[in-house]
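In keeping with the milestone schedule agreed at the kick-off meeting, the structural modelling team has produced records for the first pair of proteins. Each record is given below as a sequence line and a structure-token line. The laboratory manager (R.T.) confirmed that both were archived under the project's standard naming scheme.
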Amino acid sequence: MVTAANEYSRAYQVLKASLGDYQLQPGRPIPVEVIADRLGMDVSPVEKACSRLTSEGWAIPGARMAYFAWRPDESAIAGLYDCNRAIVMSALDFAGDDDGKAETLFGRLKHKLASRELSNATLAAYTGALFCAIVERTGRQHILELVRATNERMYYLRVLECRHFVNAAGELQVFCELLTNEDTHENRERLREAIASYHDRRRKLVPELYGMLAAQ
């Protein structure tokens, strides 16, 4: 008789083996539904197995119940920050007119950041939304897809970094303030400096973030 415990155990063993021999490559999404279908079971035991593997350091959670294959590695973590910085900074050179949609989002986000205490998970999600909005103003869909993909991979890192930087909300508020100000050369340079400072501080934190992930 196949029980829920048996299905969970089977999903766990299959996933761990696939991660161990790199069939599921680090940084790539774990295709939960595909694996569940291949094993002939519901997605629930597969998601439960992913959750356990996350606690063991074999996977990291993304937004919207996604999981990514992972092998804690300092260079990989640093690369994600470098990638996000490069994408967002390049977007500042191509800011276009999006009928005020992004500016409206910046204003709403600024209000939310000032209104109450926010969890680390919420701040991580807001950070991703902010960077997406910056890039969305370019009107270049391929760049937006890149930053969305980076956001997915960085979600859990941002949750961890918010535990370290107690003023993460304040940093995001500075971005929102600059993004809702008049688009002048001076304001754009101040925004560049703020984005560079944001990433520089976190790049210095990479060894500690690596330690947090490896210890799980």
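The second protein of the pair:
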Amino acid sequence: MAGQFESGRGLDIGTSFIISSRAFKEGGKTQYTEFRDAFYVMKPTSPIAKKMMEKGLKGQQYFNDVDGSFIVVGQDAIERAIERNQSARRPLQRGVIAPREKQARRILRHIFKEILDKPLEEGEKLVYSVPSQPVDQPAENFDVGFHIDALNNDLAALGYSPQPLSEAEAICYSELEADDYTGLAFSFGAGMVNVCLMSSGEGILHWSTTRSGDWVDRMAAQATATPDTVVQVEKEGTKFKIGEENTSNPILSAVSLYYIRLIDYTVQYMIKRLLQADNLPKFTSPIPIVLSGGTSRAQGFVEQFDRLLKEHNKDDNTLPFEIKEVRSAKDPLRAVSRGCLLASQI
């Protein structure tokens, strides 16, 4: 089986999904493996309850904690949390290892073992995604350095040679080949929005903002007195269009309206960041904007982004360059992992 694949792995370490990728030697196809980045702790109240819980969790993804609790991971964690009208937790928060989750690294190591086979050879190159420094919160509240050090250690322990790559830069590699690797890429993940401005294959500007899919879930949950996880499942499992209220579903109505606020917030920070930047490239032609990430898959997302961009870019004179188009990535959920894979093969 291992002989079917090229050397090099891509790994999107997202707040909501972790996605690995590797390329087949023939046919130009890519194999993706996805895992929900979530966990839920079930603590039995008696030896009998412990035994019954163990039987009830048969066939599901979990491991035992030292205090006798069951730590359910992945999609099973989401389902168990919903059963109890609670929210699942995550080992990552806003793109980095959650500082208040003592089990975070242990859970991540468990997930890595689930979605990464043994390396083809010792020290096989693995490129993984990391977030950029946010522009909407103090630098001391966001430690990507520890995040990278911890991931380097844990991935190296599996036999790989890990290398970090900016999340939005990975999207540029995945989506901008036809544009001579020039454009503006957005990764709307669960925890953050990451952005990269690329010119002829070089990442010129990187930044992030701290509102994205989780923010929409949290605000909609507060507005409807509903657990965050329930809002997340409703958002992902039911059709709705951004900007349209759903009179029969107050959760989706709230989600739809907060999506507008999220996009508007992101566009305003984009304009602010570009206008403050020094030594921007002098593009001779309009450049594309590519939207990616699970949060961007909602119906109407591209249209609303384009609308709000035109509202803020008054008379096409606000931005320091012209925009060719706003488009979605070919595979928004997997674009980061694919970009990491392409980088691993260079």
